[in-house]
Amino acid sequence: MAGRNTSPGRSVTSKALTILEAFTGERVELSMSEIARATGLPSSTVHRLIQDLVDWGGLERTPEGKYCVGVRLWEIAARSTRTYGLREAAMPFLQSLWEVTRAHILLAVLDGGEALLVEKITGTTDVPPVGRAGGRLPLHASAVGKVLLAHSSPDFQERVLSGPLIGYTPATIVTAETLRLELARVRRDGVATSEDELTPGSTSCAALATGPAEMGMAAISILGTTGARDLREMKILVQTAGRGLTHALAGPGPRQPISPRLPRAVPRTR
Question: Which residues form the HTH iclR-type domain (predicted)?
């Protein structure tokens, strides 16, 4: 990337990362002016850094003239030590859950103060909508978030409990004491639930899976329409999947290489 810096106090790298962070939530395609407004950077800086990111492959230009995240970033992210091997090991268990329930099946890890979805199998059309892989869910209001929070360090739990607990629905837990009791129940029962707490009409159930130290812990969840399936059955299914994934991650099986090292393609000349 270019080394020019027209805004003293911030590095070029910091500004480029700010541009990439503009693609959050539902922002999957943005125009140059929308990126400038979202980042607060000068238009000239945004124009230059966008071109650098496009040349590198971090951003791509759409046919409509907007910009979206490029597949080069996905390629880099796929090499994360926290998810490399996790998604591959989890997929048979996620697929089995989907075949039994036809609900949304989620795989999440703890990232910062949120649950990051690293894999999702979409349920049938009669289940409530949910975020896609790469999306985030709140720790206090989602089943995957609760199970990850319940098994995190006491210091981290206290930071979450002392912060604001946003009420997404009337059923959301918004007091620290109630959430503390809920986390104790999750640790005791080995499973977390969220009934209408994040989205009205949806119920999710999640269990923990643990892997090697570099991978940490993950949560597997079933999410469907409230009342459509027996909650006790959901708990049994998701706990069985969590135990199976934990066992699979503990195995000594060799990791497969992501891909061979390929030479840089050379354009043909006529």
Answer: 10-71
| Total structural domains within the chain | 2
Give the helix ranges, DSSP H, for 57-192.
Answer: 71-77, 86-101, 143-150, 154-162, 176-189
Cα angle vertex 138, ends 179, 93, to 5°? Answer: 100
CA pair distance 100, 254, nearest whole angstrom: 30
Q: How far is CA 57 from CA 70, 72, 160, in A?
A: 6, 5, 36
> 42 with 125, same domain?
no
Query: Is residue 240 assigned to a domain?
Result: yes
pLDDT tens digits, 167-216: 999 999 999 999 999 999 999 999 999 999 998 999 999 999 998 776 78
Determine the residue type at 254: P
Nearest to 35 by CA among 65, 10, 3: 65
Distant-in-sequence contacts of 137-141, Cβ < 8 A, 24+ apart:
137/108, 137/198, 138/114, 138/166, 138/168, 138/198, 139/110, 139/113, 139/114, 139/115, 140/165, 140/166, 140/172, 140/173, 140/179, 141/166, 141/168, 141/172, 141/173, 141/194, 141/197, 141/198
Q: Is residue 160 part of a domain?
A: yes
Digit-coded pLDDT (tens) for 218-267: 999 999 888 888 899 999 999 999 999 999 988 765 555 556 555 555 54
Query: What is the reported pTM?
Result: 0.75
Residues of the domain holding 169: 86-250
